[in-house]
Amino acid sequence: MLVSCYLLTFFVSVLVMPSAAGAADKIVADFGGHSGFQSATWVAKDLKIFDKYGLDVELIMITGGARSVAALLGGSTQFSTGSATAALLAGARGSDVVVIAASYNKFPGAIVSKPEIRTPKDLRGKKLGILNFGGSNDIGVQLAFKEWGLKPQEVNVIISGDAPTRLAVLLAGRIDATLLSPPHLKLAVKAGYRVLGDMGQMRANFSQSTLYVRRGYMAEHRDIARRFVKAYAEAIHLFKKDRERSLRILSKRMRVEDPEVVSDTYEYFAPRFSFPPYVNMQGIKDTLDFYAETSPELKGRKPEEFVDHSLLDELEKEGFFKALGS
Predict the structure, then answer these.
(1) Residue in 227, 224, 311 with CA at minimum distance from that of residue 276
(2) How far is CA 32 from CA 65, 83, 148, in A?
(3) 280 vs 6, which has greater pLDDT?
(4) Are 66 and 82 in contact (CB under 8 A)?
(5) Three-state secondary structure call for residue 276
(6) In this predicted model, what pLDDT tens digit does every residue of 172-205 receive, in sequence order?
(7) In the sheet that 194-198 helps form, which strands lie side by side, from edge to edge?
(8) Which residues pair with 80 in a beta bridge?
(9) Beta partners for 159?
(10) Which of 219, 235, 260, 315 is a Cys-bridge partner for 320, taking CB atoms 3.0 to 4.6 Å apart?
């Protein structure tokens, strides 16, 4: 009888201990496409940084902020990465989505056009393709129009698909201009298309690549969220500092083999990535102010209502970012 008890104890310990001590937490996170500013989660996944922090992360591509937020709220994903726009609108309308970090706090890329369109004013009456209405493409284009003195109704803005599709549609002559970031920007320039304006040099600020979650999920699984943020931050640091490994990941994830295009993409984005990955609060304010003109629920709202830096603040206080290096 005593032997049986020992055997039972042994088998129970064998069954229980691996799950308690060794099993990684399975989660799903999204990314929005094949542009270089989406590199943070690619690096964390491909270089097993998520694994280092006990996370078994499935990365899935979801194009468009509205779809990303819908997947998050529906429980299909636990972490989303994309522009702050959709997360802000969802939060303003009563959902518990909150932005907790940002890897890229600038507008990426540029508006490119057919060679015969020489100035922004020449866009009048022409077709300009974007991913969808209400997202970062839309706000970027509208802010560019404002800076250039163009009225929105003077340009025919149409939905034309994700970046590879927009490039193909542009090359086929079915649209006259579009918004592209590397590597697709470089491919368009090499094909002879004209850069009308670099979005990164606009006066308005914008948080293009952010990390957002449900407040309820973070409250219930704060340790998982903390580990995800650590992996996310470490991946950003590595991307900025380790050019060769980052180039290989970019080539694979962007599906681009031309070394010049891949190198150009890295050189464009790496210096602009934010480390530590704090959200640019002025960028959030500028976005809120822009959408407040058409969305009454955003009028008078403060950036602090939509951003939670508590995990980053904890890691900063503990010296995590300093330990990774400057």
Answers:
(1) 311
(2) 8, 9, 28
(3) 280
(4) no
(5) coil
(6) 999 999 999 888 998 999 999 999 998 877 777 7
(7) 156-159, 127-130, 177-180, 110-113, 194-198
(8) 212
(9) 130
(10) 315
Average pLDDT over the chain, rounded to an integer: 89
Helix 243-254 with 259-269: angle, nearest 10 deg: 110
Summarised one tens digit per residue, pLDDT across range 24-57 is: 899 999 999 888 999 999 999 999 999 999 999 9
The amino acid at 116: E
- Please name the residue that has the structure tokens 């600020």: 205
Q: Which residues of 85-98 are buried (b: 16+ CB within 10 A; e: fewer)?
A: bbbbbbbbeeeebb
How many C-beta atoms surround the C-beta of residue 323 within 10 A? Answer: 9
192: left (phi over 0), alpha (psi -120 to 50) or beta: left
CA pair distance 249, 229, nearest whole angstrom: 20
CA distances from 47 to 29, 30, 103, 248, 249 (A): 16, 17, 17, 11, 9
CB contact at 8 A, 32 and 82: yes
- The 3-state DSSP class for residue 198 equals strand
127-130 vs 177-180, strand pairing mode = parallel
Of 46-60, 69-83, 280-294, the least confident: 280-294
Show the tokens assigned to 303: 């950036």
d(C-alpha 169, C-alpha 251), whole Å: 22
CB 43 within 8 A of CB 243: no
CA angle 279, 38, 196 (to 5 degrees): 90
User: What is the pTM (predicted TM-score) of this model?
Assistant: 0.82
